[in-house]
Structures are given as C-alpha cells and as structure tokens.
C-alpha cells in the first residue's frame, strides 16, 4: 500500500459552454457543444496516464446532453456522484426545489451508470448559513457523503468553523460524512488550495507547501477541477453580449494550461484517489459534529 499522503481527486462534470451561454442569455444555450467531448477525452487520457481514478460530480443537465460521456467515465472505473441537475445555487432554491433538483440528477446518473450515486456537491459550494436545511434533504435522500464545504473567503456567508478533516455530520438522527475542500497553510495563514482558480494563480511552491500541510494522517483534502480546465483549445463563447462574453473567456482562459502540469506533479508526490476508494480504506475515526441553527459547524 502506498505511503504517500493522500488527496481526494474530484471533478465537477459540467459543460462550461452550457452554463456560460445560459448566463449570457444565448438563445440556444442548452444544445450540446462540440468542445465538451474533447475536454472529457483529454481529461480521461490524463487520468489514464497517471493511473488514478477520481470522483465525478455529474451535473444532470450536462449528463442529459452527453450520456455516452457519463457511461465512458463510469466504464473507466471512476466514481459517479451528484452535482444536482440545473446548477442553481442552493440558496436560490426552496427546500422542495432543491430536493427535486438533486433527486432528478440522482435518477439520471443511476439510469446511465446502473449505480445510485452516494455523494453530493452543491453548485459553487453554495450550502451557506442560510441553507443548513440542505443537509436534511441530503440525509433524507440517503447520501453517504457530501463535499460542498470550502473555507475560502471567495464564498461569503459560508458555514462558520469548517474543519480541515473529514467528519461525520449529524442531522436529526441521521448522518453523512462531510469532506471539506482542501485548505492548507502558508506562513501561518490559511490558503485555499482545492483547485480551479487557486491552482492557476498560486506560485507552485506555495501551492505544494500548502497541500503538504493539508494532507495530514487523518486528513483527506479534496481537490476539484472541471473538464474545461483541460481543454487544449481556447474557450470561446458564442452570441450574447460581446463585452461580457469576451471578459468571461479572458478570465477562464488565463493560465489554464498550468492545471494539467501541476496535477502531473501532484500525482508523483501524493496518492490521488476517489471518495469511494478513500472510504473503502479509511478507518471509522471521523469525529461527529453538528450544525448550529446559525450555520456554524460545532
Ligand atoms: Zn459546478
């Protein structure tokens, strides 16, 4: 068995063009886009090269457009989990809307892959102090784990006191395991290092020092990426207000090519694995915690 420190490797399986085109008001935002299958192909090749399997949090409205991609991911041994259906932030939904959105994604993934997903991640980590009720819904729907908590200043109104290690979240007599997204330390200060934009901007030595610090013996720091971050072609939007479209593309293309290179380095130093594989080998030492009504982990 590997002695390397472990990082949980995850991807939010969503179509960048679908989400950005919807936000820009493009009329045909929902139609499949040729870039997506290229992105997933490159990503799956990279994971094959590194010999690792990860967890894919599948967005329902993306899976509906690309059922073969979802089947291919499962066939390669990766874990499929749920990212909800429509990528609406949890705090913009009522509890009933949230339940229907998550249930629809679970059913779709199960119908495509033959296995019911047991993990969930909220769109944009949007379980906040206003939406602690989301955990009632998730435990009710039978999820074994969630990975929606990220202690980064970029998420206003996030839950208070998010621990750095996985823990058992008790909710009204039920529970699930929570896997917070990776936050390390650099010169005594917390540095979010879960993925996405931080991997594009942090100096390499800061990123790796923080990852080493985060990956302690009981820890399972979670990394998260998206297929568009591995696209060898530049991301371009079509239609919509030109200024907003060009700003979007500029932001999302900046230093994007770094991510695959950094992931190759990370795979040499760390064991990268899916939630499923982590859970199969982890002890039962996760500490129990609960949420206060004000949205603090206690
Ligand atoms: Zn997402």
Task: Please characterize this protein's 3D structure.
By secondary structure, the chain is of the alpha/beta class. 39% of the residues lie in helices and 16% in strands. It contains eleven helices and twelve strands. α6 (134-140) links the parallel β4 and β5. The longest helix is centred in the middle third of the chain and has 19 residues, at 95-113. The chain binds zinc ion (ZN). Zinc ion binds next to loops.
Unreliable residue stretches: none
Structural class: alpha/beta
Beta strand %? 15-25%
Largest sheet: 5 strands, parallel
User: Rg from C-alpha positions?
Assistant: 18 Å
Bound molecules: zinc ion
Average pLDDT reading: 93
Number of H/I helices: 11
Give a quick precis of the structure.
With 298 residues, the protein is an alpha/beta fold. The chain has eleven helices and twelve strands. The strands form three sheets. Strands 1, 2, 3, 10 and 11 form a five-stranded parallel beta sheet that branches. A five-stranded mixed beta sheet has the order 4-5-7-6-12.
């Amino acid at each position: 068995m590997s002695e390397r420190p472990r990082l949980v490797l995850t991807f939010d399986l969503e179509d960048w063009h679908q989400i950005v085109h919807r936000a820009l008001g493009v009329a045909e935002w929902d139609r499949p886009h040729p870039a997506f299958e290229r992105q997933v192909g490159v990503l799956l090749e990279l994971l094959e090269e590194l010999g690792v399997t990860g967890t894919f949090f599948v967005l329902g409205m993306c899976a509906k457009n690309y059922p073969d991609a979802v089947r291919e991911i499962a066939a390669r041994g990766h874990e499929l989990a749920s990212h909800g259906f429509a990528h609406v932030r949890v705090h913009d939904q009522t509890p009933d809307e949230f339940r229907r959105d998550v249930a629809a994604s679970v059913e779709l993934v199960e119908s495509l892959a033959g296995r019911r997903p047991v993990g969930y991640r909220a769109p944009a980590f949007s379980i906040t102090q206003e939406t602690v009720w989301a955990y009632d819904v998730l435990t009710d729907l039978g999820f074994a784990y969630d990975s929606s908590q990220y202690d980064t200043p970029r998420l206003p109104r996030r839950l208070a006191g998010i621990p750095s290690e996985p823990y058992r979240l008790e909710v009204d007599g039920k529970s699930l395991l929570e896997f917070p997204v990776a936050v390390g330390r650099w010169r005594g200060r917390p540095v979010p290092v879960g993925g996405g934009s931080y991997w594009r901007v942090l100096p390499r030595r800061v990123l790796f020092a923080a990852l080493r610090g985060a990956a302690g013996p009981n820890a399972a720091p979670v990394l998260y990426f998206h297929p568009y971050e591995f696209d060898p072609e530049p991301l371009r939007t079509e239609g919509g207000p030109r200024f907003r479209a060009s700003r979007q593309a500029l932001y999302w293309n900046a230093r994007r090519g770094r991510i695959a290179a950094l992931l190759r380095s990370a795979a040499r130093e760390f064991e990268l694995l899916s939630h499923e594989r982590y859970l199969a080998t982890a002890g039962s030492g996760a500490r129990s915690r609960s949420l206060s009504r004000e949205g603090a982990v206690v």
